[in-house]
Amino acid sequence: MVVLSTSPVCNQTACNAVGIPVIDLSRPRPDVSRIIVEACKEFGFFKVINHGVSKTLMEQMENTAGEFFSLPAQEKEKAGPPTPLGYGVRNIGFNGDVGELEYLLLHANPSFIHHKAKVISKEPSFFSYVVNEYVGAARHLSCEILDMLAEGLKLRNTKAFSTLLSDLESDSLLRINHYPPWNKNNNLSLNGNKCGSTRIGFGEHSDPQIISVLRSNDVEGLQILMSDPGGNSVWAPVAPDPDAFFINVGDLLQAMTNGRLLSVRHRAMANSHEARQSIIFFGAPPLHSLISPLPDMVSPADPRKYNPFTWSEYKKTMYQLRLSHSRLDLFQADEPQENNSLD
Ligand code: OGA
Ligand code: NI
Q: Is residue 175 within 6 Å of ligand 1 at its C-beta?
């Protein structure tokens, strides 16, 4: 059953309360599969509860991330400039995008984490233990969700998505974002409306990978782009829930499902008075994987919408574009020519 939760109405233009699907993973598997497919088709986004990840691990990861951000700037800079992995402040990517945040972007590979831990933390073995456990849990949850998605889509190969993430060469990442309050003296704006005192923390974009698993502290900020009943695009605030995970469909899942599932556009706002922290696992295939609409998703009535490409090619294209670019459009298959004659 999809339980609808509403977020408080935000009185900025084009920012509305909308229901976000909440999926209880302890329900019978066929029901969950069906609801996940519905949520990914309609929103490309949903929240999961009863997900099986221990609260202790979620808190340990939260505290470990918080400890890193509380270090002096020169200590944090030892984690390296964001190229793209490393520690970044305000600058996102290589093309001039900026936001009100600092972040740490890590490869999810255990040996990468193990090596980086030495320059990130004064307790490297505890840091790599916590981050590796968390990444393991987020990867496992992603694979479970992807398998149920494949079952719901009636794919013959129900591991078609998850094998890409469980591959030893998977290019999955872990991003930890910290949005410090940009004006600690400003409790709330005059009319008490929190939305009046926000700035762009992480600008509008879709996640390029297959699936993203986000967890944040109890501070609002995440918004997803949705259509209202009149067909207009609106930014829908997502109420924070530190006990839950929020799942995004990424560009590659949209491509592999031939456009059936939507890669959701989203952004994060930073507010003037409270720090927000979010931790996102991005589930990705190996760099050399060839991404293409799956045969089960293509038929004469539903011709192939995207050309095949490798994840490495997709990343290269992405690095040349602004954050908000709808980059998957560049990989759309050409319209079939109705008339090929040369006369
Ligand atoms: C991201 C992202 C949102 C957030 O890092 O891709 O969408 O809440 N972050 O930090
Ligand atoms: Ni994102």
A: yes
